[in-house]
Amino acid sequence: MQEAAQSECELNRWHEQVKLVFSQLDEKQRRLVAGLLSNTVGRGGVTLLSLITGLDRKTVRRGRDELDNDLEDCPTGRVRRPGAGRPPVEKKVPASSGN
Length: 99
Fold this sequence. Notes:
mainly alpha; 4 helices; about 60% helix; about 0% strand; elongated
């Protein structure tokens, strides 16, 4: 019984440490670290990391896939692929009134 409580305490501590580390990472780094940790956990790792980090399961899986492909499809020096992300917002210039 005491071993189970200690194990649960260690698991909770690990979860908190993972959350702390993720709070310091950018989007690409979070995805890759989540993929790495999900590989380490094994079966159920994608779901577990999704629950711990709040990342979508597809994002964790994509990080895992990128690592499996040795980051060949990941552009260096960029967080997102070219064209990814929100489109730029055009500033609206108010029309002048002819008064």
